[in-house]
Every structure is written in C-alpha cells, then in structure tokens.
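In this section we walk through a basic example: taking a raw amino acid sequence and producing a predicted 3D structure, encoded as discrete structure tokens. The instruction is simple. Fold the sequence below.
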Amino acid sequence: MTDEAVEHAHDAEEHKKSYDAIMGAATEIGVPFSMALAMFFTGLVTRSGVLMAILMGVIVYVLAHIVVKLFFSHPH
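The resulting token sequence is shown next.
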C-alpha cells in the first residue's frame, strides 16, 4: 500500500472513533435527558405539581437510560 492509502485508512479509523464517541454520548445522555425534560414539562402543563413533574422526569430518565444501555450494549 502506498503512503496515501495508509493515511486514508488511518483517517477512516479516527473518524469512526469520533463517530462512535459522539453517538455514544448522544444516546446514553441526550436521549434519556430529552425524554425526561419532555415528561417534566408535560407534568407541569397538566398541573400535576412541580414535585410530581420532577419525580416523573427522574423516573423517565432512569428508565430511558436503562433501555438505551440495554439496547446499545451489543458489540458492533
């Protein structure tokens, strides 16, 4: 292989590492947080009370985090 081919292969590996890191953070933190935030505001809008809205948000965050971890725990 030429130097250019080796460099392209190395660049591809680096891009894959970056992509996996970004997608990992987005799915493990971003998805559960946005679902919890939506549930929190839904609780506020439905007049469930602030404490109940916070509780619903925390419960949804924990459950969504568990589901995401289980779903994405398989190797590529």
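Looking at the output, two observations stand out. Residues 3-45 form the longest helix (43 residues). The two ends are 27 Å apart (CA to CA). In the next section we compare this with other chains.
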